[in-house]
Write a structure and sequence with these properties.
The protein contains 6 helices and 9 strands; from the N terminus they run H-E-H-E-E-H-E-E-E-H-H-E-E-E-H. By secondary structure, it is α+β, with helices and mostly antiparallel strands. InterPro entries: L1_RRM_dom, Transposase_22.
Amino acid sequence: MYKTRKTEKKTLKASENAEETEYASDEEANNGEANANLALQHGRLLESISSLTKEILDFKRDIKQDLGEFKEDVTKKIQDDLKEFKDEMLQKLEKQNANIDEAQTRIADLEAACIGMKDTLLSTIKQNMEMRNKLVDLEGRGRRNNLRIYGVPEGKEGKSVQDFVSELLKTHIKLPEGVQLQIQRAHRALISKPAATATPRSIIVNFLQFQVKEKVLRMAWQTKIELDGKRLYFDNDYTSETMEKRKAYGPIKTALKERGVRFQTPYTRMKIFWDNGLRIYDTADECGTSRPRRREGL
């Protein structure tokens, strides 16, 4: 019995040793297979890395080549575009220069023509002014024998203006013995008849002799002639141009009268008798700019 148990123990131990040996052999076999697989995978990995590296290098070389070709294409394209742009600009500049040269030539021609036209215009204006002055002078000479009467109410002259004026002058003006009025014409100013409340039209009287007209006018200035309680005023029959020039002295006359300064307005001039002497002015503007130096407030 004892031997049997001992034998069983040995058999069991031998069995265990055999299993352990078999297990170790299997483990070694498994480890060898794993190492082989690992070595295979490592080799494959190295091959993949090498292949990838080669592909990267090839890609890098291709990219570099493509970039070089692209750079050349872009450079050539830019150069071509710049050359085309430069040629186009040069053509435009040449055209502009030609236009500028043409414009300068035209401007020079126009300036020369303008100078000629300016000289002609100035000459024409001068001639027109001379002719106008002559016409005004001629018209003024044609009115030398005329005088105007201001303030006669409309309708007061009746049917005959000439008879009314003759009677008025004979009544208020005592001419030297032997001097006849010799009125040739008398009529109202040739404008529309004003309203009843407006200023009446002046009466123009034409004398045969200039000397008679002058005597009548001077005596009328020295005499206060009234009609229906209203004063009548007498003056020369001036042209419209002369009247405008004389009207310009109006404010100056008012100021001189207020300050008691003696003055006269022969034709288109003004004589002012200042404290330091007589001064004659050709225009109202000249008189206006000079009067503050002559007398304060004028």
